[in-house]
Design brief:
Two copies of one chain form a homodimer. Chain A is α/β, with parallel strands linked by helices. Chain A has three domains: about 45 residues, lambda repressor-like DNA-binding domains (434 Repressor (Amino-terminal Domain), Orthogonal Bundle); about 120 residues, Response regulator (Rossmann fold), CATH 3.40.50.2300; about 140 residues, Response regulator (Rossmann fold). Chain A has twelve helices and twelve strands. A six-stranded parallel beta sheet of chain A has the order 2-1-3-4-5-11, with helices on both faces. The first copy, chain A, has a four-stranded parallel beta sheet with strand order 7-6-8-9. In chain A, helix 1 packs across helix 3. Chains A and B meet through helix 4, helix 5, strand 2, helix 6 and helix 11 of A and helix 4, helix 5, strand 2, helix 6 and helix 11 of B. The structure holds a DNA duplex.
Chain lengths: ~325, ~325
DNA sequence: TTGTACGCGTTATCAG
DNA sequence: CTGATAACGCGTACAA
């Protein structure tokens, strides 16, 4: 392993020229360039990014902040991000917040110390204070938010149209002859879950003459939630269509329905949200709303790279979810 | 945001003294230290890790290489790693190989350019050439391999005892009255799958008077594989216990069995490997072998940190898998 | 206990 | 097109 100094010595050219070669400067003759590159191979040259970063102010590192890596939604996104940025020669450094504001603060702090060139982040559920984000913005570090943007002005965001997704899911149930709908809603403190609820309500309203509905928002205690749902199904036997705010919840509901002998999709139709892998592993398979996870990652990364090259005006990209019909919502 | 220079100016002490404060040098009087720390707060001091890294040769970055982030096994491990290293003030940079040797090479190359202080990796299925790893070793960068170590001498590894896990799973089936066992084996090019097969065979041998068995190794084409299994079940109706090499395969088998009206666990008992989250979401829930994913990550990270502090002699840690009994293998 | 001065490996500026 | 040299921000002998 060698640095540019050794190469300069070996080839007899100056440090500056060697540096120019590796920075694709046009100010170097083809034959010197070749000579340098050859020496680089022989000496197994590896640029020291730390030194380059120090001098240039550019680390070629992009910071990524997600709530959890262990969540197929976010890891799909990471895949998308990686695909794009690695093509441009950047490294990504990933931090998890575990939905904690404190972790989010310290992650951003680390990023600044590391001189990251840009940040991609999805804020945690708990985050209410945006001081740490403001610091980043003040430091002129480009940021793109995905999936869960903060409520700030003039920021770059890539989000899914959750409202539309819920609308599609709900209409799908209605189109498939459901008359009494239930929406199992997620924690309403989370923006995207609220959007889904709004989308559900809008679809209901559009078809208000045809259907009736009900909404239940669950707490975090799973076993109690399921008990609650069981009672709800018993009290309201007319319910024949369920839109769950997420796929994992949909699976739990499916299991509950099976236990209660409420056959899916014969007696009860069910649709989730997120198009998680395991939605294809159940029996019946569960219909869902696909959110093109990897695409969201790619788009965010592309937007960030653009901003890193040249300050753009804040952009918001809204992805359109798509219906994925499976067995759980089939008309028989 | 400020550097040590500004702090020196504000407090009237020298750069060296300020530097000493942040490096916890004992050679600073308490009151100077206090003065410096106070100024640091006021000026919102952020050390420039690039500069520190350049100067000290330590980046405080640890490189992590996994085949896929989008795999709950590896993301659990990442969680474990993060927990440990972040406590020691390190950042992790994650690269995925997507099971490609080429990606693995370039990831390690990036790590060297970035001057990572250590590497944690699980080699990809495709990797056969260890030149890139040797380079790392030559550069004296500490490495710990987890889950899938390369066949090299004198390396640090943290692995699961796959042999034992398979043995436990198989004996569990036998103890629960299975007489004719089937092992659905994974690609035998992958070391851990081979270990599982060996464990299965060993358990069979131990009980050879009581049981008969069969092994089928699947190809990569899922639909064809399932067809093959279906035929197998029809030809061998006596099979009453299945040990699948992984949980996802176990789910597919479960679905197939349900379709074939082979009731689980009444007519057929089933156990997987890996204790994936979705094993708890099926009906019936699927028994499995837990491999303490996060713990493996923690252990690997701890071992790496030890090696970074002081060269140790190569260590191999072997984790013991544990049986997780669920409905799919219950005796009725 | 504190300060001075040099160097880490690279890039940028200027002069040639 | 090429070379000499300063500078990036910090750590650390060495001197005081």
């Amino acid at each position: 392993m060698a640095g540019i100094k050794e190469i300069a010595k070996m080839t007899g050219v100056s440090l500056a020229t060697v540096s120019r070669v590796f920075n694709d400067s046009p100010l170097v003759s083809p034959k010197t360039r070749e000579k340098v590159l050859k020496a680089a191979k022989e000496l197994d040259y590896r640029p020291n990014m730390m030194a380059a970063a120090l001098r240039s102010g550019k680390s070629r590192i992009i910071g990524v902040i997600v709530p959890e890596v262990n969540n197929s939604f976010f890891s799909d996104i990471i895949n998308g991000i990686e695909r794009v940025v690695s093509e441009s020669g950047f490294n990504i450094i990933i931090s998890q917040t575990h939905e904690l504001q404190e972790k989010e603060n310290s992650a951003l702090d680390s990023f600044m110390k590391l001189n990251v060139d840009g940040v991609l982040m999805s804020i945690s559920k708990e985050t209410t204070d945006y001081g740490h984000i403001q610091k980043l913005i003040d430091a002129k570090i480009p940021i793109v938010f995905f999936d869960r943007p903060p409520s700030l002005e003039a920021i770059n965001t890539v989000v899914l149209d959750n409202y539309l997704g819920a609308h599609i899911a709900t209409e799908h149930l209605i189109n498939n002859n459901c008359k009494t709908l239930l929406h199992i809603a997620g924690n309403s403190d989370v923006g995207i879950f609220n959007e889904r609820k709004r989308g559900f309500l809008a679809a209901i309203q559009k078809h208000e003459t045809e259907v009736s509905y009900q909404i239940t928002e669950l707490k975090s205690d799973a076993t109690q939630d399921l008990k609650h749902l069981e009672n709800l199904f018993k009290e309201h036997p007319k319910i024949d269509g369920i839109f769950a705010f997420g796929d994992e919840m949909a699976i739990h509901v499916l299991n509950l329905l099976t236990t209660l002998q409420l056959e899916v999709p014969k007696k009860m139709k069910l649709i989730g949200f997120g198009n998680a892998h395991f939605s294809t592993l159940t029996q019946p398979t569960i219909s869902s709303i696909d959110q093109e996870n990897a695409h969201m990652g790619e788009l965010s990364a592309t937007l960030l790279l653009q901003n890193m090259n040249k300050k753009q005006r804040p952009t918001t990209k809204i992805l359109s979810p798509k219906l994925v019909e499976r067995e759980s919502s089939k008309i028989d």
